[in-house]
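pasting L-ascorbate oxidase homolog for the record, 193 residues
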Amino acid sequence: TIRLANSAPVINGKKRYAVNSVSFVPADTPLKLADYYNIQGVFSLGSMPDNPTGSGGYLQTSVMAADFRAFFEVVFENSEDTVQSWHIDGHIFFVVGMDGGQWSPASRSNYNLRDGISRCTVQVYPRSWTALYMPLDNVGMWNVRSENWARQYLGQQFYLRVYSPANSLRDEYPIPKNALLCGRASGRKTRPF
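structre below
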């Protein structure tokens, strides 16, 4: 179970938005290139906590690690007075529950496990939570973000790296040989697959 709470902290004297106290900052190299070429220092796996911290916000190039063919229960929590809208790239998920107040493990007893709605974007109402089940059936580096552009731009997002030890075209295509490389990946040659 992963619980994700949005917040609006002030970091270094500036208003930011965060997920589990982490306000995302873009890296100098696209994360997919850094992952593909194993470039150290661009991001670190596990830099995104899987539960709300309850502390003030901080800046980080946040990436959560996950295994291919795993299954997540994700609970979006919203303690603010506005509707939050969340999108997960590369995956579909099934909305199984939502309610006002605070989510707890006992909330599962009211989940809809018969005909959950398949989505890639979901809303979380003010002072409420929304739960979803998500099969991790797509290898890669995927963005989880607020659909409110200002919140996304100011840090309310992170990346989910779904990893498979198999280096197979069945799971993920390689970066094209004619891809333009930038950041710390500049000057590297594409790897043979």
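The domain at 2-185 is CATH 2.60.40.420 (Immunoglobulin-like).
The chain has one domain: 2-185.
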